[in-house]
From TrEMBL:
Golgi membrane protein involved in vesicular trafficking. It is a multi-pass membrane protein. Belongs to the TVP23 family. One of its GO terms (biological process) is protein secretion. The gene is TVP23. The chain crosses the membrane at residues 21-41, 47-65, 114-134, 140-159. It holds the Pfam family DUF846. PANTHER family: GOLGI APPARATUS MEMBRANE PROTEIN TVP23 (PTHR13019). It is found in: Golgi apparatus membrane. GO terms for cellular component: Golgi membrane. This is Golgi apparatus membrane protein TVP23. InterPro entries: TVP23-like.
Length: 195
């Protein structure tokens, strides 16, 4: 039986987080949009009110995840740059230095598990809600679910890609003198360390 007083690293217990306030806020935004949508369906017929509150919560979740939670919990950040002249869009992925690099840090296992679990579960739940809306012929609610899917899937794909490039640059960088060289290959990754 697991020791309740001294849980193992990576256990899904927010008290083991290196950044508990960031983690709880991140999870609160993730859960709040779903709860407002579900409870709004059950307790009220006011579509506009539920739509506005859910969109605001989804926007706050998108911003907080992209700019704060991803950086603090797993050391990843992404953004999209559009060149003024040609209008080409470029995705930029940034990762904190690996633990074996100068200035690097170890990512807390609990933060990492909560982050990735919440990141992948929310789009899956919105897909299930989209199916329910289609089956119930509630197409007016489907518009809200589609907006939620776009926002959550964008963050999910971007952070998955960011993690993939981060791991690849860490492998390449471990064989070189400096990992910053690998982070600048192709302009895909930025070598800057962020706090």
């Amino acid at each position: 039986m697991a020791d309740i007083e001294n849980p193992a690293s990576g256990t899904l217990n927010w008290r083991l987080s290196a950044h508990p306030i960031t983690l709880v806020t991140f999870l609160s935004f993730r859960i709040a949009s779903l709860l407002v949508y579900l409870l709004g369906l059950i307790f009220t017929e006011n579509y506009v009110l539920i739509f506005i509150i859910t969109i605001l919560l989804l926007a706050a979740d998108f911003y907080y995840l992209k700019n704060i939670a991803g950086r603090r919990l797993v050391g990843l950040r992404w953004w999209n740059e559009v060149s003024g002249g040609s209008g080409d869009s470029t995705w930029v992925f940034e990762s904190a230095p690996q633990a074996n690099e100068p200035g690097g840090r170890v990512i807390n296992a609990t933060d990492k598990r909560f982050f990735w679990l919440a990141l992948y579960c929310q789009p899956a739940l919105w897909v299930a809600l989209a199916v329910v809306a289609i089956v119930k012929f509630a197409f007016i609610w489907l518009t809200l679910v589609v907006i939620a899917l776009v926002l959550t899937i964008t963050n999910t794909l971007a952070f998955s890609r960011c993690d993939k490039f981060s791991q690849a640059s860490g492998l390449v960088g471990s064989g070189l003198y400096s990992a910053s060289l690998a982070r600048n290959v192709g302009g895909a990754l930025v070598s800057r360390f962020f706090r």
